[in-house]
Amino acid sequence: MSSPEHPSSARAAFDPDQYDPETLAVRAGIERSQFGEHSEALYLTSSFVFNNAAEAAARFSGVTPGNVYARFTNPTVTMMQDRLAALEGAEACVATSSGMSAILSMVMALLKSGDHIIASRSIFGSTQQLFANYFEKFGISTTLVDATDIAAYRAAVRPTTRLFFIETPSNPLTEVIDIAAVAGVAHDAGALLAVDNCFCSPALQKPLELGADIIIHSATKYLDGQGRVLGGAVCGRKAEMDEVLRFLRTAGPTLSPFNAWIILKGLETLSIRMEAQSARALELARWLEKQAWVDRVFYPGLESHPQHAIAMRQQSSGAAVVAFEVKGGRDEAWKLIDSTRMLSITANLGDTKTTITHPATTTHGRISQEARDASGIRDSLIRLAIGLESVADMQRDLSRWLAV
Ligand SMILES: Cc1ncc(COP(=O)(O)O)c(C=O)c1O
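# pyridoxal-5'-phosphate complex -> structure
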């Protein structure tokens, strides 16, 4: 590799501190080869060669920086990490094979047996399982608290509390948690705050600016944005990200260069996608509120949302997930879903294609009825992850069941 931006010219290197987020999304992190390619290169190589044994030894030991082996270094993955770090305003980013392996890597790197986690009750179902079934097995316990009850976070603190973990807005009920308030409680307890920023992405919300220490991403969602690949990331201070990278180097839940390249190119359109998908979500949420067959709509951009004011303070829009309760129960919810022709019946979100999900029997089907009741996930609940189709077509699809 030669110098970052323009190998054979005297132009100054790209300095991320000088540019706006839209610019960072398309230009941050570029590392050009000697060929001077304009689009970012995809380096499909598992290992790297050295000129001699001394150079190999220096690279392996970290005395000289550079690529060694793709379990922990690959130029395409590095470009994606640097671009995401620039967008989140983080010192460093470590990419992982999925969102779940980002959470796993963070906890394995930064916590130890005997430590305690406080997490919001409404975190993603697999995250709950990871905490309850696996971390618990290795002596790391978790207390779940009501997502929006700041006093409950404070009351749950133990001398061994090392990590607070929240997801805002939450899935699927779009509860919004005051990040700055939870960061205050975490720091008073001498603990770190990790925020799963999957629903908003850095285009709409910057948790580090609000006091969080670590950001988790399922890059599978809006960062890719077109439902193509799995990926994840942990962002934060360099010291802590070095620990996460050490875990990756040892254990290997690494992002493939191909997936990194897809996500890197996905980041280029992130802000315009988030803006367009949020605008459609708001329009559809307002329409749903007016339908006689809808009991309740959950969308942070609506004035009726219980945490609307916090959402408008810490997010630049309501994001693109809308949930609603249909009048009736599971039968009505399934009838509505089964009557659609265009919307994709799938559990994923963050795609340009709108998806429709019945959380109680899919994403949250593995948690107990009691846990579902405690989280307010009723059988009548439907989640929409709004994409880029026309709102009129979405409305038509959601109304078909009335004629069946
Ligand atoms: C909020 C949230 N965090 C984490 C994950 C896990 O991400 P992945 O599927 O990439 O492992 C998901 C997946 O749906 C999610 O919705």
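# post-check
The first strand starts at residue 92 and ends at 96.
The longest helix spans residues 270-289.
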